[in-house]
Amino acid sequence: MKALIISDSHGFEKELKLIADRHRHEVDALFHCGDSELPNGHEALEGLYIVKGNCDFNVDFPDDLTETIRGVTFYVTHGHLYNVKMTHVPLSYRAEENQAEIACFGHSHVATAFQENGVVYINPGSIRLPRNRVERTYCICECEGETIKITYYGFNGEVIPDLAFRFTRK
């Protein structure tokens, strides 16, 4: 199972579509963790599971969603409702409530991944306004056997080697 995870595109239309089109035929799901600032039904959002971010006004995206893709349960939210810039505890409660194996979030624009209590947390960073790095990032999560592998990419599709993560599935 492979999933593209992207967040905080903040109005980038062509850029978002370019990234989605680049990978859509190699992944099983495309997740956007909010702050697209695009209207529901916009062509750049075609085929993406998307949640509402704090900058998504007048749209009817859900605040969060839970999807099981080829046996892997993802919980996706923007993160602003769970105060992710300060702590991951409220997000962890919600992910565990939803029996998620992988929790995806954005809001902080900081590309990171970590595992806690059997749940893998992924923030893909931002393709528009990254923080703590120069690169504008997104990632692909791959679950194969007992391994969860997360590969981060720069905007142009180049792999970012120092943002590579591997976790053992619990």
TrEMBL record:
Q: Which cofactor does it need?
A: a divalent metal cation
Q: Which InterPro entries match?
A: Calcineurin-like_PHP_lpxH (IPR024654), Metallo-depent_PP-like (IPR029052), MPP_YfcE (IPR041802), Phosphodiesterase_MJ0936/Vps29 (IPR000979)
Domain Calcineurin-like phosphoesterase: from-to ranges:
1-144
Q: Which domain of life is it from?
A: Bacteria
Q: Give GO terms: molecular function aspect only.
A: hydrolase activity; metal ion binding
Q: Which UniProt keywords apply?
A: Metal-binding
Class of enzymatic activity (EC top level): hydrolase
Instruction: Identify the EC number(s).
Output: 3.1.4.-
Q: Does the keyword Metal-binding apply?
A: yes
- Carries keyword Metal-binding? yes
Q: Which family does it belong to?
A: Belongs to the metallophosphoesterase superfamily. YfcE family.
Query: What is the protein's name according to its record?
Result: Phosphoesterase
- Organism, by scientific name, is Halalkalibacter akibai (strain ATCC 43226 / DSM 21942 / CIP 109018 / JCM 9157 / 1139) (Bacillus akibai)
